[in-house]
């Protein structure tokens, strides 16, 4: 495809979206940490601290354990790549971008699932016991979270008539959504799944290194330097991906649509950043209010999400006969 | 505008089913009683909304009865009973909660499958209400069979009755006198059950109803 003026702009917009997601990811983590710190009456590090941490990791030497396979070096880049593609496909500030036809909800779930499975493999690779514990726990959570996520996808796709996220966003901002109990259930289920998938507090504590409780941290123990940078950045991007799915499906306010001008873009980006910041603060508050769950309680927590999704899909069949 | 009326009725009746699931999910006694109060409050909101849409003022009385008796009086009394029996930590489900929830979802699917063809002639609000009401009734039954503790069985029974009230509110032309008598019979049933709870406890030193299965009536 030759690059001329007609398709250069859409391509640039798509690139802008990819870079926006990447650039915002550390800030969102920083805001969440800051909120938690303020609620604990600490001053906490600046919201830009994650950028400094990542820069420090980039400068450090990467140490590789002797017992690892050659793939060990490749995993972090693959994880980061899959997560970034998933995050870049979610409509953030504009719905009809160049690649929005490929922004299918199921494809995004699959990409994130691939990244997660790779991370578990990476945890197993070095052959340490912590990596094994982390990987097995991660898989336990994944086995419960992904069906729940797919139920949410089914509810939304049944309602909107498409599983493409920009189509879903267009439907959700349209007039015929109404007040639906299925959507409320899907929203709660999605929030629970997002919390579990991003290793946030009731399921996993992202700041702990305690053997008994860590899940995510246990898998990445063997990584350092630029490899750790990739994994950390991937998990931040993943958080942004989930938050933007929430924003685009359940709160598509300010999303620019097909005929796109500079004003719409500015409005779209502004509302997107605002939504993400609000979600990050809410996440911080939620994390401060909850206690970490025992690992064996997690299936019940995620089972509730699965049940809500299933129930939401079932109830759609009652309300479908509306007219 | 009728779309919005319908949506709110749908939302309230659907929330009632959801709260039924929350009842199944609880594993602490006081949390169970609080969720039960919530169940009654959601019911009274749903019934009041039906009263508003159907322009049937007597349904407001039903809603008020649900709110006062089942939202306030009975949960409060159960709180006191639980405190006096000292059983606030024991819920004692028969199977695991996850399996119970799956059975519950199966029951909701069953009631949708059963109800939709039967009541196609009814108005859409009536059809929805009947489906949700049947789900609530079945979930109440499930609650009764899946718990060993007598107090949680009482809660299951009361939530079952909430489903019946929802069905009655959806069907037009339910006379007020029937509703009031049902409400009072529930209250009487509650009093009787409350007395029985203490009797069971006196006799067997527990409110775990498995003890009753062993009993053959002779003096211990």
Describe this structure in words.
The complex is a heterodimer of chains A (323) and B (220). Chain A has 323 residues and is mostly helical. Chain A has one domain. Chain A is 69% helix and 0% strand. Chain A contains eleven helices and no strands. In chain A, α5 packs antiparallel against α7. The model of chain A has no long low-confidence stretch (mean pLDDT 86). The N and C termini of chain B lie far apart (66 Å). Chain B has one domain. In chain B, α1 runs antiparallel to α2, α1 runs parallel beside α5 and α4 packs antiparallel against α5. Chain B is an all-alpha fold and 220 residues long. The mean pLDDT of chain B is 80. In chain B, 40% of the residues are buried. Helix content of chain B is 81%, strand content 0%. The longest helix of chain B has 29 residues. Chain B has eight helices and no strands.
Notable traits:
heterodimer; A: 323 residues; mainly alpha; 11 helices; B: 220 residues; 8 helices
What's this model, at a glance?
By secondary structure, chain A is an all-alpha fold. Chain A has helices at 5-39, 49-59, 71-89, 105-125, 129-160, 165-172, 181-197, 216-219, 225-250, 262-289, 298-319. Chain A is globular, with a radius of gyration of 20 Å.
Per the principal axes of the C-alpha atoms, what is the gross shape of chain A? globular
Question: What gap, in angstroms, lies between the N and C termini of chain B?
Answer: 66 Å
Report strand % of chain A.
under 5%
Low-confidence regions of chain A: none
Domains of chain B, number: 1
- What is the overall number of helices of chain B? 8
Helix content range of chain A:
55-70%
Q: Which value, in Å, is the CA radius of gyration of chain B?
A: 18 Å
Distance between the termini of chain A: 46 Å
How many H/I helices of chain A?
11
* Helical content band of chain B: over 70%
Query: Mean of the pLDDT scores of chain A?
Result: 86
Counted beta strands of chain A: 0
What is the CA-based Rg of chain A, rounded? 20 Å
Low-confidence stretches of chain B: none
What about the largest sheet of chain A? none
N to C succession of SSEs of chain B: HHHHHHHH
Biggest interface goes to:
A-B, 22 and 28 residues
Question: Structural class given helices, strands, pairing of chain B?
Answer: mainly alpha
């Amino acid at each position: 495809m030759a690059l001329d003026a007609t398709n250069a702009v859409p391509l640039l917009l798509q690139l802008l979206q990819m870079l926006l997601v990447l650039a915002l990811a550390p800030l969102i983590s920083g805001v969440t940490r800051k909120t938690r710190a303020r609620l604990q009456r600490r001053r906490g590090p600046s919201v830009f601290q994650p950028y400094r941490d990542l820069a420090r990791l980039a400068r450090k030497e990467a140490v590789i354990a002797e017992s690892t396979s050659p793939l060990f070096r490749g995993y972090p880049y693959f994880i980061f790549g899959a997560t970034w593609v998933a995050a870049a496909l979610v409509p953030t500030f504009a719905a009809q971008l160049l690649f929005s036809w490929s922004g299918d909800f199921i494809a995004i779930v699959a990409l994130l699932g691939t990244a997660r499975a790779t991370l578990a493999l990476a945890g197993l690779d070095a052959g340490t016991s912590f990596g094994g514990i982390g990987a097995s726990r991660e898989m336990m959570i994944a086995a419960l979270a992904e069906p729940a996520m797919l139920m949410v996808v089914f509810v939304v796709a049944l309602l909107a008539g498409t599983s493409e996220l920009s189509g879903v966003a267009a439907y959700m901002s349209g007039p015929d959504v109404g007040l639906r109990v299925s959507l409320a259930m899907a929203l709660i289920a999605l929030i629970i799944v997002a919390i579990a998938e991003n290793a946030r507090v009731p399921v996993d504590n992202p700041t702990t290194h305690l053997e008994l409780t860590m899940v995510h941290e246990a898998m990445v123990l063997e990584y350092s330097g630029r490899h750790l940078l990739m994994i950390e950045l991937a998990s931040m991007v993943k958080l942004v991906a989930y938050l933007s799915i929430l924003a685009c499906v359940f709160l598509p306010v300010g999303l620019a649509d097909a005929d796109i001008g500079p004003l719409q873009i500015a409005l779209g980006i502004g509302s997107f950043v605002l939504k993400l910041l609000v979600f990050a603060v809410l996440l911080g508050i939620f994390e401060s209010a909850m206690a970490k769950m025992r690992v064996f309680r997690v299936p019940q927590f995620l089972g509730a999400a699965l049940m809500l999704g299933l129930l939401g899909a079932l109830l759609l069949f009652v309300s479908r006969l509306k007219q | 505008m009728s779309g919005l009326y319908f949506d709110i009725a749908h939302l309230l009746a659907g929330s009632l089913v959801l709260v039924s699931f929350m009842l199944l999910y609880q594993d602490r006694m006081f949390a169970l009683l609080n969720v039960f109060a919530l169940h009654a409050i959601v019911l009274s909101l749903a019934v009041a909304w039906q009263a508003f849409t159907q322009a049937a003022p007597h349904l407001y009385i039903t809603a008020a009865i649900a709110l006062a008796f089942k939202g306030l009086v009975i949960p409060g009394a159960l709180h006191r009973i639980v405190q006096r029996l000292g059983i606030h930590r024991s819920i004692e489900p028969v199977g695991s909660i996850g399996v119970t929830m799956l059975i519950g979802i199966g029951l909701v699917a069953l009631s949708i499958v059963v109800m939709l063809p039967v009541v196609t002639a009814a108005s859409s609000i009536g059809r929805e209400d009947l489906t949700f009401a049947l789900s609530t009734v079945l979930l109440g039954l499930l609650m009764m069979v899946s718990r060993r503790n007598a107090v949680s069985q009482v809660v299951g029974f009361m939530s079952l009755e909430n489903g019946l009230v929802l069905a009655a509110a959806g069907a037009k032309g339910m006379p007020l006198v029937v509703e009031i008598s049902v409400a009072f019979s529930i209250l009487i049933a509650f009093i009787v059950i409350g007395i029985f709870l203490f009797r069971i406890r006196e006799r067997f030193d527990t409110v775990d109803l498995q003890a009753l299965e062993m009993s053959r009536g002779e003096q211990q």
